[in-house]
Amino acid sequence: MLRCILIASLLLLGACGFHLREQANVPEALKRVRLEIADPGTTLHRDLPPALKRAGATVVDAPDGVAVLRIPVSTLGPDALSVGQTARVREYTMRFRVEIEAVDAAGAVVMPRQQIELTRDYTFDETQALGVAAQEDQLRKQLQRDMVQAILRRLEAVGKTQ
Questions:
Q1: CB under 8 Å to 77, separation ≥6 — which residues?
Q2: Which residues, given as ranges, of the chain have pLDDT below 50?
Q3: How far apart are CA 162 and CA 159, in angstroms?
Q4: What's the confidence (pLDDT) of residue 129?
Q5: HSE (CB half, 13 Å, CA atoms) of 5?
Q6: Which of 38, 25, 34, 24 is nearest to 58 (CA)?
Q7: Which of 66, 74, 71 is nearest to 34 (CA)?
Q8: pTM for the predicted model, two decimal places
Q9: Where does 24-161 sit in CATH, by number?
Q10: What residue stretch is flagged as signal peptide (predicted)?
Q11: Would you state the pLDDT for residue 8?
Q12: What is the reported pLDDT for 18?
């Protein structure tokens, strides 16, 4: 009986078109790429090169003859979302915004400068200040992971339109 349910579930998932998300692939023009990140202390500087490598790119430090992925703007921080009756912030939104652009080895624009913004909302409870700090740290880490994936997906989309 359990076997029949399992087989039926797998058939239904296959029939509805469900499939696991595949690894992103960078376009051919960006297979050898140099990163120019405005703030080298960000986690993008640490997390993006291995993600690009998994997507089929080779990240190099060579100044000439390679494509360039520029991230001139990268900001991550909380903004007040709502204020309570006592004029204290009750909800925040964690906002991660980057601007990216890519040029190929010849200097032609592969992807014009564009913005990617990710947000997550969370509540602030004054009685749980330590918990809120931990929650904020978790949101930052989650947004940073999601931003790397969003950049890869944007690069993949550029490759499909060329």
A1: 94, 95
A2: none
A3: 5
A4: 67
A5: 2
A6: 34
A7: 66
A8: 0.80
A9: 3.30.160.150
A10: 1-24
A11: 76
A12: 56
List the Cα angle 97/99/104 in 5-degree steps.
150
d(CA 128, CA 69): 41
Q: How far apart are CA 50 and CA 146, in angstroms?
A: 14
Tokens of 73: 């703007």
* CA–CA distance, 105 with 115 (Å, rounded to integer): 22
Angle value at C-alpha 69, between 26 and 29, nearest 5 degrees? 45
What are the pLDDT digits (tens) for 68-107? 999 999 999 888 878 877 777 778 889 999 999 999 999 9
Distance (Å, whole) CA 102 – CA 159: 11
